[in-house]
Task: structure prediction
Amino acid sequence: MNAEAGRLIEVDWDHFDPWRIQGVRHGLMSHPLLKLPALMNLSKRLEARGRVRTHSNDATPGTPFNTAPKLHPNRMSAASTLEQIEKARAWMSLLNVQTDEVYRTLVDDVLNDIKPAIDRVDPGMCYRGGWIFITSPNTVTPFHFDKEHNFILQVSGRKTIYVWDHRDTVAASEKARDRFHACHERDRLQWAEELRERATVFHLEPGQGAYMPSTSPHMVENGDNASITISFTYYTDATRRDSLLHAVHERLRAWGIEPAAVGQRPVIDSLLHAGFRSAINSREWLRRSLGKRPSTDSAAYAIAT
Result:
């Protein structure tokens, strides 16, 4: 393994492909910030800031991810849920833990450790984030995708993760990706049991994990015990370019233009990206000039609303 590669997350860094799903190993199982008492304290701090997402275990793979908390509410507080997690029948995510002073250190420790290896093949790491999932036995994370590259690491318990290639248009159509990048809606993403046959499947135990490129659809089924999992996420120059092009294609459709898939016409992609990126940069410059908070995907850390 290359001497510059990270040690907290173990991958074959010499052959790391940022657009390929792959298994990883890690050494965070005994980290004190990932023990339940510390997570209960964190949950109280984040819940007060509206940064906890939770639903009951009535959710299924096909439950719409964006509305799962409303469709299947978990009415207990975050701390109470974690205190009773074995019997709570709940799924819980502690969102944007990088906004917490204590946990930002953990996010930085891990991502700084792997950044030299990432930068060699996928430069521009930014918009760093951390997400901690604490789930009751036999609980499902519905089928969905996210914008960031994602290292998802199993800390305790066992779960099965199904991941689909980000180019698999059966699992997620080009139009579904366009809409998601344009407005963060996942309503064009549809679950079907037959998709399991197309997935890369990881049966994770503590110390194991998976790497998922941006917009890789995934679904998670927890095992027979409570589980703690953490995701470290980030954008790069490539993910930001890809996201912008998908969003532009969604806008073109609203104007009655049907574009080719992202990547099929590189010259047109380059022209569209240059034009719209320039407009975005100008908008952000104006916001800063007016003393407003910038809203940019090039921020050092993920922006939590």
User: Anything to note?
Assistant: Helices lie at 36-47, 68-71, 78-83, 101-121, 174-183, 237-254, 266-289. The two ends are 39 Å apart (CA to CA). Residues 164 and 198 are 7 Å apart (CA to CA). DSSP finds seven helices and twelve strands in the chain.
